[in-house]
Amino acid sequence: MSMLAVSSLAKRYHRGGKPFAAVDDVSFEIGPAETLALAGPSGSGKSTIARLVLRLTEPDAGRIAFEGADFLALSGAALRARRARLQMVFQDPLAAFNPRATVARVLDDPLRIHNIASRAERPRRIAALLERVGLDANLATRAVHEISGGQRQRVAIARAIATQPSLIVLDEAVSALDVSVRGQILELLLDLQRQERIAYLFISHDLGVIRAVAHRVIILDAGRIAESGDARAVIADPQSAIGKALVAATPRLTRNRP
Amino acid sequence: MNRLRRFLRTPEAVAGAIILALLVVMALAAPLLFPGDPQAIAGPALLPPFQAWSLPLGTDRLGRDVLAELFHGARTSLAVGLAAAAAALLIGTVVGTLAGFAGGLADEVLMRITDAFQTVPGFLLALAFVSIVGPSLGVVVAAIALSGWTGPARVARAEVLSIRERDYVAGARVIGMHPLEIAFREVLPNALPPVLALSSVIVAAAILTEAALSFLGLGDPNRVTWGGMIAEGRTVLRTAPFLSIVPGVALVLTVLGVYLTGEGVVEGTAVRRSLS
Amino acid sequence: MTALLSISDLSVRYRRDGVEVPALKGISLDVLAGERLAIIGESGSGKSTLALAVAGLLARGAKIGGRVDWFLPASAGAKAPLSVLPDISPSRGEIGSSAAGSLLATSKIGEGGDRQLISPLEGEMSGRTEGGATERLLLMPGGNTPRLGGDIGFVFQDPSSSLDPVMPVGKQIAEVARTHLNLSWPQAYAKAATLLERVRLPDPDTALRAYPHQLSGGQKQRVAVAAAIAAGPKLLIADEATSALDTIVQAEIVSLIRRLVSEDGMTMLFISHDIALAATLADRIAVLRHGELVEFGETGQILNAPRHAYTRSLLAAHLGLEAEPLLDRQGASA
């Protein structure tokens, strides 16, 4: 059973008067508790697919089925209600939060909007969410611009899991983090996946990160799927030209083991 | 704290703030210092300034106390100016935010309405409005607001257009927030700073418009206004120029104070922005 | 090998909201002539501050202690003989400028009077020195010190903001060549065309007239590299120059930089957060953390026998194409 099934998705943009296909005939499925990675150079359509799947941008063609229902048919209040199940974490958590917000407000919004907890109950739920992502509950009173990048990304994850989603889109969610923080955030994501059976659409340009956390990978080139398959198999032996180029370009630590 | 300190460091801002503070004190003290009707006759007509202790700025054509009129006029000028500017900013920000955030047809319609208002000279519009509805304080405020909201609307729309593409707006959509809540709770507060930077210009313009309306006899007849005082003095401009000069100077100082304070505030926040 | 520049006990502090924040704490290291040195560290490590300090680009409010001494050939940096500058506070360091061929210069370099000892940061500002003196000392007096653009080429992270958006890229490169090599405009443009060819921009003649927004991110960074090397600098500093690019373009820019540095015999300072990327390019690696130099050594030694625990943790955190996936580690522990 697939959680998300995308078929023949297409999106065109106009650049300098000329139309170009940002996403062209893309189809894929994600199962429960599965991580599907989208890899590719910049301009390959990774982020556009994320926006289409989240209904932040409307596709020109194609179908999106989410949890067995036609996701593109929803609008208005029905769409907003269904959004609880499909969440997102952005690359830059500072840009992803209202610059005036506190941590508490960032986490209060989803609980309030989806009637998950009463007003009196919400502070306790916020504290629990913060603890779930490995943060001190006292952080709730701080402004989002006062906390560190790693803490901020944990808050972004807490916000994403607040509505108990079945799928989270992670758009370069660890790319801006320091390597030492990155490992911890990836561990947290994997832990949440195991505990809550959350599926991830994991967008990254970094094959090393994809190989570490993804089950399957799709390699995109100019809006089309160049190849796809088991993440480790594809990265170990890419068949497409773009796949080969991506693997060749990934920096390696060539340590001479004694 | 820091902002205040930076504000106080610019001498123009301090001068502006002092002028405004004096005006506010004048407006607040008017009913205490001059408890009676400022339009009542207080002495001989056309008494020049500095002649009598009880009437330091002299009297007008009808023997009314010019100083009392000046103080009560400050009340009207400030009240009308601030109320009209606040109304203009409010209307402008709401229209601009809705147009910028909704886009499409709503944007088209709202902006064409804005165009329509902007193509008619604002003062003419206010003049026509007051002539039709009849002069009273509320009508004058509405008339001035009607002629002044288009500027803030355009600035707010431009700011909203850039803010609505930011990640946090997409994030608010992803968590299922209602579009109106996104527009007014997430986007509008962050679009305000450049709109507020306009506020000193708008307050100053509102005060001048009010004075002009009163000068033409379209102010609230039951209140003393500086514009009305200038109009009064006009008929005896040769023999008693002080009757026009005193309220005129008050008007100039008020507008100057508003501008200087506004500049200081903008500069203070600009420094803060470039640091962060 | 001889040193191109010597950094001794360099400290930098910034004022932020009235509080002094240390960015660098007593860094000492020599950059050898002709080497490729990588400075790596995470955010807040001070790696970019170090790059800016070497280039003399620190913000005016920064407080600087210690010194940076340059050993440039007489023909390159200085036009006039240096005069000995007044020594402001000998107890806290010395003024690093001295007359050409002076004892200090020759003894330090050990090669003779054709080189000069130059210090762009002839300061040693500890907190005890107040006010304007700090700022004055940040300025690089013209002619006596390495000139940014002339002797130092600097490539920033984001070419979109380092290039002028309203000037054709050819003119931006030609301007550098004209300023530092005393060329006429036609000569400078010819030089710019050659440079665009050297950085492998497709169709360099058209590119000469292109504006930055007409180029892709990778192409813009190639232009920025061309501008940085236009005057034939001794030292090329790349500050996270590939971080904003995708993996494939990053690899292209790194190989471009590697080729240019070896062709022109430039010394290279490569600032990066990515230890694996730095290792593909550098002869030596300096590891910074919280403004301190925690480890400094040959690339092979850093990778194979790191001495400091922090270096080991950076290496362990690298997710390469050979590492054991986190997915498996999790599965095993579950």
TrEMBL record, chain A:
Assigned protein family: Belongs to the ABC transporter superfamily.
InterPro entries: AAA+_ATPase, ABC_transp_ATP-bind, ABC_transporter-like_ATP-bd, ABC_transporter-like_CS, P-loop_NTPase
Gene3D superfamilies registered for this protein in UniProt: P-loop containing nucleotide triphosphate hydrolases (3.40.50.300)
Any matching Pfam family: ABC_tran
GO MF terms held by the record: ATP binding
Domain ABC transporter: 4-247
Transport as UniProt keyword: yes
Protein name: ATP-binding cassette domain-containing protein
Alphabetical UniProt keywords: ATP-binding, Nucleotide-binding, Transport
Domain of life: Bacteria
Entry-linked SMART domains: AAA
PROSITE patterns in the record: ABC_TRANSPORTER_1, ABC_TRANSPORTER_2
Nucleotide-binding is among the record's keywords: yes
From TrEMBL, chain B:
Membrane-spanning parts: 78-102, 123-146, 195-218, 239-260
Positions of the ABC transmembrane type-1 domain: 74-262
Protein known as: ABC transporter permease
InterPro entries cross-referenced by the UniProt entry: BP-dependent_transpt_permease, MetI-like, MetI-like_sf, OppC_N
Protein family per UniProt: Belongs to the binding-protein-dependent transport system permease family.
Pfam families according to UniProt: BPD_transp_1, OppC_N
Alphabetically ordered keywords of this record: Cell membrane, Membrane, Peptide transport, Protein transport, Transmembrane, Transmembrane helix, Transport
Signal peptide: none
Family matches, as Gene3D superfamilies: MetI-like (1.10.3720.10)
Species annotation: Mesorhizobium humile
Record membrane topology: Multi-pass membrane protein
Top-level lineage group: Bacteria
From TrEMBL, chain C:
Cited InterPro entries: AAA+_ATPase, ABC_Ni/Peptide_Import, ABC_transporter-like_ATP-bd, ABC_transporter-like_CS, P-loop_NTPase
UniProt similarity note: Belongs to the ABC transporter superfamily.
Quaternary organization: The complex is composed of two ATP-binding proteins (NikD and NikE), two transmembrane proteins (NikB and NikC) and a solute-binding protein (NikA).
GO molecular function, one term: ATP binding
Subcellular location: Cell inner membrane
Reactions mediated catalytically: Ni(2+)(out) + ATP + H2O = Ni(2+)(in) + ADP + phosphate + H(+)
CDD domains: ABC_NikE_OppD_transporters
Protein's membrane topology: Peripheral membrane protein
Protein name in the entry: Nickel import system ATP-binding protein NikD
PROSITE patterns: ABC_TRANSPORTER_1 (PS00211), ABC_TRANSPORTER_2 (PS50893)
Native source organism of the sequence: Mesorhizobium humile
Keyword Membrane: yes
Record-listed E.C. numbers: 7.2.2.11
Coiled coil: none
UniProt keywords, alphabetically: ATP-binding, Cell membrane, Ion transport, Membrane, Nucleotide-binding, Translocase, Transport
Class of this enzyme: translocase
Domain ABC transporter: 5-315
